[in-house]
């Protein structure tokens, strides 16, 4: 949610390098993935990727500002509540929670955990999962496939997690179990 808010602002609005940019995650029982998608003019590829990496470096080097986290939490909570405006939406939401967690009311526990997140929690999760060895970059292009492939490969090769800034390094790491809030008490998934 934080990347979905900050990356678009920087590379779509402030420096119009892309037509569209979004971030999402897929977190099933098995290992999932986090994705950043961009639609852009081919000529902006290297500059847009550099701007994206810059945003990832920022996310990996220091915790988000409390205001950024509060906005992301509010957006997530709003999405969850608005998804239940209709009977179909409620059935989908409650059915998903019943299927995944064995309790259709588990939504309340998840929202309580989301509201309890701290900026240092976001930093710890970002540093755990946004690693070069797990990064995959793909592109669909009607022309210039070889050149695009070279740019993508160079981007992945250059991507190295930055060191923590002094303020972030001074913060004690949260307990590892703090991030297992999305799992049910039956422990149906991994971390």
Total of helices: 8
Q: What is the alpha-carbon Rg in Å?
A: 18 Å
C-alpha termini separation: 18 Å
Strands of the biggest beta sheet: in what spatial order? 1-2
Number of strands: 2
The main pleated sheet reads as:
2 strands, antiparallel
Q: Strand fraction band?
A: 5-15%
The percent of residues in helical segments reads 40-55%
Q: Decide which structural class fits the backbone.
A: mainly alpha
Report the principal-axis shape: globular
Pattern of helices and strands: HEEHHHHHHH
- What is the residue-averaged pLDDT? 78
- Assembly type of the chains comes to single chain
User: Which segments are poorly predicted (pLDDT under 50) over 5 or more consecutive residues?
Assistant: 173-191
Summarize the structure in words.
With 191 residues, the protein is mainly α. 53% of the residues lie in helices and 7% in strands. The chain is built from 8 helices and 2 strands, in the order H-E-E-H-H-H-H-H-H-H. The chain has a two-stranded antiparallel sheet. Strand 1 (20-26) and strand 2 form a beta hairpin. The model is unreliable at 173-191 (pLDDT under 50).
Q: Secondary-structure map with pairings?
A:
Blueprint: H1 2-14, E1 20-26, E2 33-39, H2 45-61, H3 66-82, H4 87-101, H5 106-115, H6 119-129, H7 145-158, H8 166-170
Antiparallel strand pairs: 1-2
Notable features of this structure?
191 residues, mainly alpha, two-stranded antiparallel ribbon, 53% helix
């Amino acid at each position: 949610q934080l990347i979905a808010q900050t990356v678009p602002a920087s590379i779509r609005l402030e420096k119009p390098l892309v037509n569209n940019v979004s971030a999402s995650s897929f977190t099933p029982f098995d290992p999932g993935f986090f994705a950043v998608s961009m639609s852009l003019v081919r000529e902006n590829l290297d500059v847009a990727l550099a701007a994206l990496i810059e945003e990832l470096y920022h996310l990996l080097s220091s915790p988000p500002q409390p205001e950024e986290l509060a906005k992301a939490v509010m957006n997530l909570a709003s999405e969850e509540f608005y998804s239940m405006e209709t009977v179909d939406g409620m059935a989908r939401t409650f059915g998903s929670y019943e299927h995944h967690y064995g309790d259709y009311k588990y939504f309340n526990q998840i929202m309580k955990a989301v509201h309890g997140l701290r900026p240092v929690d976001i930093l710890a999760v970002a540093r755990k999962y946004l690693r070069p060895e797990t990064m995959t970059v793909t592109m669909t292009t009607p022309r210039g496939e070889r050149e695009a492939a070279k740019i993508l490969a160079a981007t992945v090769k250059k991507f190295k997690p930055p060191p923590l800034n002094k303020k972030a390094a001074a913060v004690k790491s949260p307990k590892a179990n703090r991030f297992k809030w999305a799992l049910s008490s039956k422990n149906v998934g991994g971390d």
